[in-house]
DNA sequence: GTCGGATTGTGAAAGTGTTCACAAGCATGG
DNA sequence: CCATGCTTGTGAACACTTTCACAATCCGAC
């Protein structure tokens, strides 16, 4: 079987959230149709996504909410706890530390690093900020699996190098720069400014701009 | 010409960043090849992306860094200032207020709203937190174009409804729930937990799990 | 003026992801 | 125990995206 697409994994994450709330509501079964409607996709899409990993439904009835939720949890690795290192104890970093959704999904931020010696030793939500130079040592000691980068963009690449040298293979980067992943290393870049730009593109496009029909777009 | 894909818009945003830094470095021209290498895509991809909007290059030479940057700015709507409302002055909201990249791209957060009366009237980075009930009035007064939702997930849908009722058409949502967009309204959902889940999926998949070859994945 | 080297712009081909459509299969009720 | 109604699982069709490949064309050197 071929590699699973990123889009499928993203949708599984979304289904997982719906299943959790259906379970809370006490619902036992759910059909691909019901799940699809909640996420604006087709029922066939839901079934295809799941069929990549096996057969989990019962024809005529649908899927067991609880079983499907557990299954997706295992697929996504949510059935266990991941130890996460956060680098950069600035405003975004501090917000992320207090983000409860991470912990709820099994992502525990177990260490925060910074290179600002004024911050090192201070606390953020019960976590002592550590000197970035202790990173290699702590990755081993705390059995860290994942890292989050929340440092200014000029420091991001060097922090990524450091993390990779310390043995980490999975990095979530919030600095607005596309970090490159060497083979075997996975880096996901989250860029919030780009999200806003997609909106402003639409705002412009809807109003005045039609592709191929826009004289003032020609280079000056 | 057909509708431009989201992927293309995202890449334009990324090219834009490279162009800005090339311009700072004083470079005059850039080839599709050079731009492609910076972003891990093919040169053909770069050219196709640009060709959706017109012809901006010179054969044999490449693209003028400065002109191409301005052109993309116009396509994405970065040549002007957008007034942004932020709803939710919690930890994420406060981080977003101090996020300089937004302002640099022309996204000015001009108002912050909250429903917690203890917070209303207090300041965040020079912005006074306003009572959410004043939102409709302020959208008009401040000519607000875009909104960012940074409230807990249970409040997100009702805040979205409120924003739409106040006349806003573009919303960036950070609550971990997929808000649905009625026709004419665009909502982009940013879900950071999903980003981590994509990483943990890979971590699990790389180690032990191969699709279609995983006995313990069968429902219990 | 024209030749050579370089790079664009773009149809066509290849590759991916999504939707369709229906046989297969299960639970329930008579 | 079989007919009925519903929903899954999946190959095939379709749609969209990316890559290929090359003619078009521009600059600068001679
Ligand atoms: N603030 C936001 O809302 C927001 C939103 C999206 C993305 N971002 C991005 O996230 C990153 C952090 O943003 P922020 O607003 O928290 O910035 P910040 O300046 O508040 O914090 C950055 C922190 O990183 C530390 N740091 C700098 N270099 C370091 C290094 N080499 N090693 C370890 N630590 C180092 C600094 O000491 C500081 O504590 C930036 O790249 C920013 O563009 C921020
Ligand atoms: N903290 C993070 O790093 C982080 C990261 C990603 C996503 N998020 C999401 O962003 C949202 C906000 O997170 P947070 O950590 O800032 O939470 P928070 O509790 O610190 O802040 C939420 C704010 O929203 C306000 N609020 C609640 N209901 C409201 C309403 N109906 N109208 C106006 N304001 C209202 C609250 O008074 C509070 O000030 C949540 O949905 C969270 O899941 C947070």
In short:
The structure is a homodimer of 220-residue chains. Chain A is of the alpha/beta class.
Describe it.
- The structure is a homodimer of 220-residue chains.
- The first copy, chain A, has 220 residues and is α/β, with parallel strands linked by helices.
- Chain A folds into two domains: 6-75, Arc Repressor Mutant, subunit A, CATH 1.10.10; 82-194, Rossmann fold.
- Chain A is built from nine helices and ten strands.
- The model of chain A is unreliable at 209-220 (pLDDT under 50).
- At the A-B interface, helix 1, helix 4, helix 5, strand 9 and helix 9 of A face helix 1, helix 4, helix 5, strand 9 and helix 9 of B.
- The first copy, chain A, binds a DNA duplex (30 and 30 nucleotides) through helix 3 and strand 2.
The CATH superfamily of the largest domain in chain A is identified as NAD(P)-binding Rossmann-like Domain
Radius of gyration of chain A: 21 Å
CATH architecture of the largest domain in chain A: 3-Layer(aba) Sandwich
- Major interchain interface with per-chain residue totals: A-B, 79 and 79 residues
Q: Give start-end ranges of low-pLDDT stretches of chain A.
A: 209-220
The chain-level mean pLDDT of chain A equals 91
How would you describe this structure in keywords?
alpha/beta; binds nicotinamide-adenine-dinucleotide; 2 domains; Arc Repressor Mutant, subunit A; 10 strands; three-stranded antiparallel β-sheet; DNA-binding; seven-stranded mixed β-sheet; 220 residues; homodimer; disordered C terminus; Rossmann fold
């Amino acid at each position: 079987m071929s590699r699973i697409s990123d889009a499928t994994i993203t949708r599984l994450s979304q289904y997982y959230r719906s299943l959790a709330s259906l379970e809370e509501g006490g619902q036992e079964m759910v059909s691909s149709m019901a799940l699809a409607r909640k996420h604006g996709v087709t029922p066939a899409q839901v079934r295809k996504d799941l069929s990549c990993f096996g057969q989990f439904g019962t024809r005529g009835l649908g899927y067991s909410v609880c079983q499907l939720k557990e299954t997706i949890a295992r697929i996504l690795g949510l059935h266990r706890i991941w130890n996460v290192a956060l680098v950069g104890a600035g405003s975004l970093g501090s917000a992320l530390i207090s983000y409860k959704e991470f912990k709820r999904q099994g992502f525990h931020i177990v260490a925060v690093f910074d290179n600002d010696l004024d911050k090192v030793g201070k606390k953020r939500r019960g976590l002592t900020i550590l000197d970035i130079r202790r990173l290699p040592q702590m990755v081993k000691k705390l059995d860290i699996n994942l890292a989050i980068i929340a440092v200014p963009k000029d420091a991001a690449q060097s922090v990524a190098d450091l993390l990779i040298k310390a043995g980490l293979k999975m990095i979530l980067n919030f600095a607005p720069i596309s970090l490159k992943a060497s083979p075997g290393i996975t880096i996901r870049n989250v860029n919030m400014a780009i999200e806003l730009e997609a909106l402003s593109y639409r705002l412009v496009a809807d109003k005045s701009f039609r592709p191929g029909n826009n004289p003032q777009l020609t280079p000056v």
